C-alpha cells in the first residue's frame, strides 16, 4: 500500500499559529522552525492562556536490600470502555500511596544503588541537532502508537539532589539555577530510554521571563512551555499567580517543568511533530484537539515517570502525594476555564490526574501511550 506523503492542510482549516499554507517540509526534511513548518503550535505549554502549552535498566540492590519500587507495582491501564475513569483514579491513588510508603522504608538504607551514575550529563545545548521528522503519514502514525521508546523503562532510582525552590522568595537567577539543575536530573533519568530506543537526548536551556517573551516560536504570555523551534524551555515567574497550586505545592513547579521536558522527549522521539501533523491532516478541529490532549496528558505521564525515578533522592514524602496530584488536577481545562464540560486542548482535571498517576505508578514508559488509550481517558 502506498504511503501517503505530507500534504498541504485542507483549505480553510489551518490555525493561524501554524504558519502559512503549504509550508510543510518535503519528504524527510526538517522544518525550518515549527512555527513555520505547519506541524505544531508555537509552543507546547502548561499554564493558562496557552494556545498551543537502551535496554531497560533494572534497579539494582545493595546487600540485603529489597527491590526498589517507589510507587508500587505497575498499574494496569484502563482498557475496558465500560469501566469509569473514577474507578481507575481510585485504584491508581492506592498504588501511589502504597508505593510511597515502600519508597520511604527503602530510603532508610544507605545501600541504595542509584542508576546511571556514570553518565556525564552534558551542559545545556543552545544549538541542538535537528529533530527527527517522519517521511510519511504512515510513519507518523507508527511514531505515536508504536514508538520504540514505549518498550523502554525509566531507570529507578536515579539521584537528583536538587532542593525544592520557594517560589514566593526565589529570585529569577535562583529560579534559573534550580530549573537548570532540574533539567540535568531529567536528562540523567531519560537518557537511557531515549538513547536506548535509537534517539538523541538534548538538555535544554531554561529562560525565566515575566509577562511575555519573544522566541523562535513567537510571542508567549505568562506560561511555562517547550519551544520546538529552538528546543528550549521557558518559565514565567508570574505563572504561580495564575495557577496558585504551582506556588502552594512544594513540588508544583518541578511537576510543571518535568511536564515541559516531557514535550522535549516527545519532540526528540518524533511523537510531537507526528501527532500535530496527523491532527492537521484530519482537517477537523475536534480531532486536532484530541491529538493535543493526548500529547499533553502523555507529558503529564512522563512527568510522573520522572518523579517515580527520582522520588527517593528528592525526598518526596507520603505527605507530598496530595499536593503533587493536586497540581495535575489544577491545570485541567475545566478547572482553568471554570467550565465543567469544556472540550479543550490539554485535558480535563480527571484526565490529567489519571495520567500523572500512571507515571507515578510504574517505570514502564509504554504505560504512558496515551495514543492507544480510550477517549474517555483523554477528555
From TrEMBL:
Residues 1-76 are annotated as: Disordered. Residues 13-29, 53-66 have a biased composition (Low complexity). One of its GO terms (molecular function) is metallopeptidase activity. This is Metalloprotease. It is found in: Membrane. It is a single-pass membrane protein. The chain crosses the membrane at residues 85-106. It comes from Microlunatus panaciterrae. The keyword Membrane applies. Keywords: Hydrolase, Membrane, Metalloprotease, Protease, Transmembrane, Transmembrane helix.
Amino acid at each position: 500500500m502506498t504511503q501517503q506523503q505530507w500534504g498541504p492542510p485542507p483549505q480553510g482549516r489551518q490555525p493561524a499559529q501554524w504558519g502559512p499554507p503549504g509550508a510543510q517540509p518535503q519528504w524527510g526534511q526538517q522544518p525550518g522552525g515549527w512555527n513555520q513548518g505547519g506541524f505544531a503550535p508555537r509552543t507546547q505549554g502548561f499554564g493558562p492562556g496557552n494556545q498551543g502549552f537502551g535496554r531497560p535498566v533494572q534497579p539494582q540492590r545493595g546487600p540485603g536490600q529489597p527491590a526498589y519500587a517507589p510507587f508500587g507495582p505497575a498499574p494496569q491501564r484502563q482498557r475496558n470502555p465500560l469501566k469509569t475513569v473514577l474507578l481507575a483514579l481510585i485504584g491508581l491513588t492506592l498504588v501511589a500511596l502504597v508505593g510511597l510508603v515502600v519508597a520511604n522504608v527503602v530510603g532508610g538504607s544507605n545501600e541504595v544503588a542509584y542508576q546511571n551514575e556514570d553518565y556525564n550529563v552534558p551542559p545545556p545545548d543552545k544549538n541542538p541537532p535537528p529533530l527527527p521528522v517522519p517521511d510519511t503519514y504512515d510513519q507518523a502514525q507508527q511514531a505515536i502508537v508504536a514508538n520504540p521508546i514505549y518498550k523502554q523503562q525509566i531507570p529507578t532510582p536515579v539521584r537528583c539532589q536538587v532542593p525544592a525552590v520557594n517560589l514566593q522568595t526565589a529570585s529569577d537567577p535562583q529560579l534559573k539555577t534550580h530549573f537548570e539543575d532540574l533539567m540535568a536530573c531529567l536528562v540523567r533519568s531519560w537518557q537511557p530510554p531515549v538513547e536506548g530506543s535509537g534517539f538523541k537526548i538534548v538538555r535544554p536551556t531554561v529562560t525565566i521571563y515575566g509577562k511575555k517573551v519573544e522566541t523562535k516560536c513567537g510571542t508567549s504570555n505568562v506560561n511555562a512551555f517547550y519551544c520546538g523551534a529552538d528546543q528550549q524551555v521557558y518559565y514565567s515567574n508570574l505563572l504561580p499567580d495564575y495557577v496558585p497550586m504551582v506556588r502552594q505545592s512544594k513540588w508544583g513547579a518541578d511537576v510543571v517543568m518535568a511536564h515541559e521536558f516531557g514535550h522535549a522527549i516527545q519532540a526528540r522521539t518524533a511523537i510531537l511533530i507526528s501527532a500535530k501533523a496527523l491532527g492537521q491532516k484530519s482537517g477537523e478541529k475536534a480531532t486536532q484537539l484530541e491529538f493535543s490532549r493526548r500529547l499533553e496528558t502523555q507529558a503529564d505521564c512522563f512527568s510522573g515517570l520522572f518523579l517515580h525515578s527520582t522520588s527517593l533522592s528528592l525526598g518526596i514524602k507520603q505527605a507530598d502525594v496530595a499536593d503533587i496530584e493536586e497540581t495535575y488536577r489544577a491545570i485541567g481545562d475545566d478547572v482553568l476555564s471554570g467550565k465543567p464540560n469544556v472540550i479543550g486542548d490539554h485535558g480535563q482535571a480527571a484526565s490529567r490526574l489519571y495520567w500523572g498517576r500512571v507515571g507515578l505508578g510504574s517505570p514502564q514508559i509504554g504505560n504512558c501511550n496515551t495514543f492507544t488509550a480510550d477517549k474517555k481517558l483523554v477528555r
